[in-house]
């Protein structure tokens, strides 16, 4: 950005912030930076399929997303992640962007098929190991901690073809094998490990709605050639939970003591607000959280599925054997929360609901909606599912804190998306004021939860760059940096300048905090 543009941008930011922090809304007042712990991670997030490209380079095998995106009709704009934003070749440039933001961490995922082109059924691809070594070393040279996800929706296609991927318990062995290799090769330098990204989204989008590979579902949920929307999400979830446990056990037993890192899982955590103050709707909102999020976290932390799920689903829900329960005991070190938005929830057990998302038995008998009596829960955005409701961040973090005994948390994704509408092309895509407002209000809500005692240790903005947004291809932009998808040129948006300033203010004031003088060594 030119100097004059930057000045203008900063002026706009100040106005936005002034209006935010003098708002009468109580959660937005008094932003006290000293409430953040000294080693708080500020970063941006990404994932291998959405960023890397190089889909056949240097010995990488095909994964489920390579195959899915190449089938006509699966991606809205007919695009693929073959090139994506070419992070594989441009990671040094991207690290320079991170350096300029002043972040101290970077969340990325490892492409499983780049390391193991055919899972455990063939050799390790050393060129893949070398790529991640270069990435990790380059980050560390700039003081940026790698925060690494083992699988972010992509698995080697070989595993789908051989035994149906996550539908088979054999996936547990493959995931453990892959995790072991990652700990062995990278764990001397990687201190933050995530097993799965959003298994709750993956299980439902791939096996209930048929929108993610392997695109399995049944009527009335979707129109797929194969699948069972009422059974399969629970089978794959069960295998993912046990795969998580397998990887955690390997880490705990063979690596953690020596390497000194921590390991957790990332869950998609929307907040659910009862649509009325009736007891039935309040219970429905609780149920929604259970069926959506605690579905994964309860087994990993408590060794069993949420009571509401057991009661409603009965024999549909797989059971944990004695040895599974033993394996689950080692749980996790932290919970990663991807939070973007909130919904209203209406009970559908005592009352008859109109058709809509959530109303069936296997979804948990609640109707999910973004509005009440025609009024949206928060400012609408270009994206139908995304309304701006910053309070939801505080409520969700507080809920997780209470349900899971204040297990350490990281906000592993939070961000604002815009449609890449042709009509809007001339409308200054770099002046993303709405993204700045979104981030400022959500960080403010997060700080409020932290001041009230939530053990939150980091925040990752989704995303460093505009990128391949799954079934929406390149039609949605979430980046702090604009990417021209033809030239792949990266240009900072206003939100990048804003985030940089936010990080600088919150880090500097931590250093000068007289009550915690020893925090200086961290920054
Ligand atoms: C389901 O998909 C098939 C094959 O793609 C198509 O012919 C049919 O019209 C679809 N049915 C519905 C109800 O959309
Ligand atoms: C991308 O760059 C090309 C070449 O400079 C330009 O013609 C095009 O308008 C750019 N597209 C966007 C979306 O900025």
TrEMBL record:
One of its GO terms (molecular function) is coniferin beta-glucosidase activity. It comes from the Eukaryota. The keyword Hydrolase applies. Gene3D superfamilies: Glycosidases. SUPFAM superfamilies: (Trans)glycosidases (SSF51445). PANTHER family: BETA-GLUCOSIDASE 45-RELATED (PTHR10353:SF213), GLYCOSYL HYDROLASE (PTHR10353). Belongs to the glycosyl hydrolase 1 family. This is Uncharacterized protein.
